[in-house]
Design a protein that fits this description.
With 208 residues, this protein is of the alpha+beta class. It is 30% helix and 32% strand. The protein has helices at 12-32, 62-73, 110-128, 153-163; strands spanning 2-9, 38-41, 48-57, 79-83, 85-89, 97-101, 144-151, 173-177, 179-186, 193-201. Strands 3-1-9-10 form a four-stranded antiparallel β-sheet. A four-stranded antiparallel β-sheet has the order 2-7-6-5, with helices on one face. Strands 4-8 form a two-stranded antiparallel ribbon. Strand 9 and strand 10 form a beta hairpin. Helix 2 runs antiparallel to helix 3 (110-128). It is globular. It starts with a strand and ends in a 7-residue tail after the last strand.
């Protein structure tokens, strides 16, 4: 068994820009936060767009999944997601996740609809080979996780509101959904170690 997920990886330049946003947030919160606040910042090399978390899967499913996902996404065109705001889950007043992603208005766009269709197709692929965690029914919300608030969520919410950083115009770059990768996650005390097992191209083709 191995722990894995399907994701879109970032190019080097976009990763650099996202890291700059992350570092700015870290400085802002670090200056004002009390010792009661504990935030786990995602390593720059690990930032990605999760398409589906798979949990623990049997290694025998790796190749069938590659074939199924590859066939499913070959009819799609690449999708482009503008990263234009900092957001939080579940609520700005008590955030547990800090992320960067598209504006709310983008969620009604044709690109967003195509991404939702791609996401549903990947879900169906996983179900077809007997690898499907329960879906929660929520609309797929593309975001890149920057940090997880472990303690002091209310204080972090107050600091974010006071800084105004979530209300400022922002353009980090555009995330191109041009391929989907199966990534193995090995949990370590210092953080997870990710290993790409295969990659399938949107529009056809694969990188093995």
């Amino acid at each position: 068994m191995l722990r894995a997920f399907l994701a879109v990886e970032l190019g080097d330049e976009l990763k650099r820009q996202v890291t700059l946003v992350q570092e700015d947030l870290k400085r802002r919160l670090g200056r004002e936060a009390s010792k009661a606040v504990r935030i786990a910042w995602v390593q720059a090399s690990s930032i990605h767009l999760t398409i589906k978390f798979l949990g623990d899967i049997d290694e025998s499913l790796i190749e069938p999944m590659r074939r199924a996902v590859g066939v499913a996404i070959q009819e799609h065109r690449p999708i482009f997601i503008p990263l234009e705001r900092i957001g939080t889950f579940p609520h700005p007043r008590e955030p547990r996740i800090l992320w960067v992603g598209p504006q709310v208005r983008w969620e009604g766009s044709e690109e967003a609809q195509r991404l939702a269709a791609l996401h549903r197709m990947v879900e169906d692929c996983c179900s077809s080979i007997g690898c499907a965690m329960a879906m929660d029914g929520r609309l797929f919300s593309p975001h890149l996780t920057l940090a997880r608030v472990k303690e002091g969520a209310r204080e972090v919410g107050r600091l974010l509101a006071a800084s105004g950083v979530m209300d400022r115009p922002l353009f980090v770059g555009t995330l191109a959904v041009e391929s989907i990768a199966l990534i193995k996650s090995d949990l370590k005390p210092a953080g997870p170690i990710y290993t790409k097992l295969w990659q399938a191209r949107v529009g056809g083709g694969g990188d093995g």
